[in-house]
Specification:
The chain contains 22 helices and 12 strands. It is an alpha/beta fold and 569 residues long. The strands form 4 sheets. The protein has a 4-stranded parallel beta sheet with strand order 2-1-3-4, with helices on both faces. The chain has a 3-stranded mixed beta sheet with strand order 7-11-12, covered by helices on one side. The chain has a 3-stranded antiparallel beta sheet with strand order 8-9-10. Helix 6 crosses helix 11, helix 13 runs antiparallel to helix 19 and helix 15 packs across helix 22.
Length: 569
């Protein structure tokens, strides 16, 4: 017989020991042990700077590779050699669990400096040594915890501070933290400002993320501020920002020695706001004096225009203007009356005419009827298939009771058919179509669309965002010299432009529209919007109305639903 085959496992728990002699010393001693015992070393696994407290995957990559080596060479490796038992594991339960795994692979654990083995005396010694390693680890952990608790009582945060404070990196220098974390002169005032604004209810978390980046936090950190980052600022780190330190082991709180960002009142206010128990400050985003503030954009920089009132010798004068200081249009005011008059005229120009409204209504009603017919047929087919599956499931039970199926076969076939039944029921439920008055919805919507200028100024402030999403999803740019620019229209208005545009002749309309309307519509075309929104001519929405009858009807009349709810409200 050949010599027994062995693998060596060496480990250091401190990364600073990697460059020293610890790993080399352990490997040399293990090789001498194998030579004395007459064993051939077939592999060496070096764990550089990982802890032996537990055997989790992330902590012990090389150890797991060593176990895999023993598994793949089961019966071919007879020894797993370590310098000491505490190099193997510092937890008794882990120690014996892995030792059993090694025995199952045909390998025995060997310690160079300790007498362990399979005899009763050696097993007893091994148990004591494993317990001593766990005890030593527990003592070290307790001392570490006691030291961190002492720091907390002194008002010093023993871990890395959150965003807004500077980390001293004392651990990397082998020193102990003696001073509270100082504020980061760049990030501290930005986060402080954000917390105070949120405490006053002036913005949501999403708006807070955008504001922080606009103020410069993204430049400081080198990456965009996400909602997750804001959530940590307002949740996980909020107590620290309020000057409160929490003992994670006892749950007790103490006053930190670091400079807080917010007061205790602001801290409580933020907590209540996030819990939905505090009344948010109402912001007048839609000033009735300036109804176009959240609709019209500056054509130069793309930001919303705002409004303000100036005093002069003749009284008060209202203006719209851009607030972006770096914008070429900054400071160039637009008289309120001029902009609103031009906006009214623009709305009149894009209001769909009666021909299109009648065409669209009839098309949607035709589609709705097709949808109902198709879903009815699909529902009947699925019910038939479902009945067949239920019958098949019943036969499986009969065959099992007659002894034709083993328990395993029965369970497999039963689960398979039950999965098919569950999927079939889901498909059947999706074929259900709500019964509601589509024609009534269209009537409400068309009534709204017929007179856009009047609807705009008659709408309550809180409904104007819906109007904007319906007509101008991204707003509409305006230049003081050239007037309104090219906006992106809502789908209903793009279809209207396509309906009126001469270029639409390149797409054959046959089979797309109700035949009673197309010839009349094409004869009545007198205006082309191609110069206003050229991309409207290639919009596939009109064709989809008839060519995709299985598409959800809800998505097709989404814009109409907005109109109907606004009008009804």
């Amino acid at each position: 017989m050949g010599k027994p085959r062995a693998i060596i496992y060496v480990r250091v728990s401190d990364p600073q020991q990697i460059e020293g002699t610890s790993l080399a010393f352990q490997e040399e001693e293990c090789r001498r042990f194998c030579e004395r015992k007459g064993m051939d070393v077939v592999a060496v696994f070096r764990e550089e700077g990982e802890t032996a407290k537990d055997l989790t995957l992330n902590n012990r990559q090389e150890f797991l590779r060593a176990l895999e080596f023993c598994r793949k060479h089961k019966g071919q490796v007879q020894a797993f050699v370590v310098l000491r038992v505490d190099r193997f594991a510092r937890n008794t339960e882990d120690h014996f669990a892995v030792r059993k795994i090694l025995l199952d692979y045909g390998a025995t654990l060997h310690s160079v400096t300790e007498t362990i083995g399979n005899s009763p005396a050696e097993k007893f010694i091994e148990t004591v040594l494993a317990g001593a390693a766990e005890y030593d680890n527990a003592i070290r952990k307790r001392r570490c915890i006691d030291g961190m608790m002492a720091k907390l009582h002194q008002g010093i945060f023993p871990w890395k501070p959150p965003l807004g404070y500077l980390c001293g990196h004392t651990k990397k220098r082998g020193e102990k933290k003696q001073e509270p974390d100082p504020p980061d002169k760049q990030a501290f005032p930005l986060i402080q400002r954000a917390l105070k604004e949120f405490a006053r209810g002036l913005c949501s978390q999403a708006e807070l993320a955008r504001k922080l980046d606009r103020w410069g936090l993204a430049r400081i950190r080198g990456r965009k501020t996400t909602l997750q980052t804001v959530d940590r600022l307002l949740g996980q780190h909020l107590k620290f920002y309020a000057g409160i330190l929490v003992n994670p082991w006892t749950g007790k709180e103490c006053r930190g020695a670091h400079q807080p960002m917010i007061s205790e009142e602001e801290f409580q206010r933020i907590r209540l706001l996030r819990a939905g128990k505090a009344e948010k400050v109402k912001r007048d985003r839609f000033n009735p004096l300036f109804p176009l503030r959240r609709t019209v954009l500056c054509s130069a920089c793309g930001y919303w225009l705002t409004g303000s009132v100036s005093r002069g010798h003749g009284g008060k004068y209202a203006y719209y203007h851009c607030t972006t200081r770096s914008c070429a249009r900054y400071g160039k005011a637009i008289p309120k009356a001029n902009l609103e008059s031009a906006f009214m005229q623009y709305l009149e120009g894009i209001t769909p005419q009666e021909g299109f409204l009648a065409f669209f209504k009839e098309t949607v009603l035709d589609l709705w009827q097709e949808k109902k017919t198709h879903l009815g047929e699909e529902s009947r087919r699925l019910k038939s298939d479902l009945a067949s599956l239920e019958e098949k499931r019943s036969r499986i039970f009969d065959l099992y009771e007659s002894g034709a199926y083993t328990k395993e076969d029965f369970q497999e076939r039963k689960e398979e058919v039950e999965n098919q039944i569950a999927a079939m029921k889901i498909s059947l439920s999706e074929c259900h179509i709500d019964q509601f008055d589509v024609e009534g919805v269209l009537t409400y919507a068309i009534t709204f669309i017929r007179n856009l200028p009047r609807q705009w100024f008659d709408l309550p402030q809180e409904l104007r965002p819906r109007f904007q999403r319906l007509v101008f999803p991204d707003g509409i740019p305006y230049d003081r010299d050239r007037g309104f620019g090219t906006p992106r229209f809502g789908l209903i208005y793009q279809l209207n432009l396509l309906y009126l545009g001469q270029k639409s002749a390149e797409v054959s309309p046959e089979g797309v529209e109700p035949s009673t309307l197309w010839s009349e519509a094409t004869r009545s075309v007198q205006l082309s919007y191609g110069d206003i929104v050229p991309e409207a001519y290639s919009h596939p929405g009109l064709l989809k109305l008839r060519k995709e009858p299985h598409r959800s009807i809800a998505s097709r009349i989404e814009n109409f639903n907005y109109s109907a709810r606004i009008e009804a409200g």
